[in-house]
Amino acid sequence: MIEFINNLNSDDTKKFGKKACHLAKLCQNDIRIPKGFVISTDINEKNFLYFQDEILDFFERLNSNYVSVRSSMTMEDCKEHSFAGLFDSYIKVTRNRLFKNIINCWKSIKSERVKTYCNFKRIDYDSLRMAVIVQYMIEAEKSSIVFTQNPVNKKNEIVIEAFKGPCKFIVSGKIGPCRYYINKSDFHLETIESKKEISTLDESDINEIKKISLYIENIFNFPQDIELVKERNGKWWVLQSRPITCL
């Protein structure tokens, strides 16, 4: 019912959802991800009460004051459809807020935006099932969203968007990031777009992100949309990876 990400079968998407299983596959290939656990699709608002003690036990074993809470849907992060941004996620969640935010994450599956998206993509809404991921919260010095293929014009280049602070600000679109374009033929940094005079990433950051993103693309054998954060001691951590989709 509840399992640590590194112990998951990376093919068990019906029980733990696509996002969690993608993270499990990254673990199996030695990619650094924050320690976390997954509440399976067998648990929901109706039977949640019976699993609270077990969830708290898993939480304590993360040894973190703060965690993130995110959806892991059975049909999320697919090549055909992503559901990106349609479910509620939470960062810097304390022990006291854990249950409330898990429940709110479940409730977001009932939103009109999810139903509208399912109708648009001709997805059977009633077939949707949600697992919930709870992960150790990395204190982000820098964040990055990486596309291993240009999502706009499909050019063979890596597009890196970076920002100082948590990834949530990039994803929400509230703050414009620095953007870097790397040609995948010769890995030359072609362009930097920034509203600031100072680049967010230094050369070592760009090289590390490039190395990680290309390795992940090779793991899944498909262009990837990757979310990373850099903690204050200099390590980059992968928060998620999913196929690049149109919508």
Task: Describe the secondary structure blueprint for this structure.
Layout: E1 2-4, H1 13-28, E2 36-39, H2 52-62, E3 67-73, E4 90-93, H3 98-107, H4 112-121, E5 130-136, E6 140-147, E7 157-163, H5 168-172, E8 178-183, E9 189-193, H6 203-220, E10 224-231, E11 236-243
Structure overview:
This protein has 247 residues and is of the alpha+beta class. It folds into 2 domains: 2-136, ATP-grasp fold, A domain (Dna Ligase, domain 1); 140-243, D-amino Acid Aminotransferase, Chain A, domain 1, CATH 3.30.470. Helices cover 28% and strands 27% of the residues. A 6-stranded antiparallel β-sheet has the order 9-8-7-6-10-11. Strands 1-2-5-3-4 form a 5-stranded antiparallel β-sheet. The radius of gyration is 18 Å and the shape is globular. 36% of the residues are buried. The model has no long low-confidence stretch (mean pLDDT 90).
List keywords for this structure.
single chain; 247 residues; alpha+beta; Dna Ligase, domain 1; D-amino Acid Aminotransferase, Chain A, domain 1; 6-stranded antiparallel beta sheet; 5-stranded antiparallel beta sheet; 6 helices; 11 strands; globular
In which order are the strands of the major sheet placed?
Answer: 9-8-7-6-10-11
Q: Name the shape in a single word.
A: globular
Q: Number of helical segments?
A: 6
* Structural classification: alpha+beta
What is the share of helical residues?
25-40%
Uncertain residue segments: none
Briefly note the CATH topology name of the largest domain: Dna Ligase, domain 1
Strand residue percentage: 25-35%
| Count of domains | 2
Q: What is the oligomer described by this structure?
A: single chain
| Largest sheet descriptor | 6 strands, antiparallel
**How much is the radius of gyration in Å?**
18 Å
Rounded to the nearest angstrom, the distance between the terminal CA atoms is 31 Å
H/E series, N to C?
EHEHEEHHEEEHEEHEE
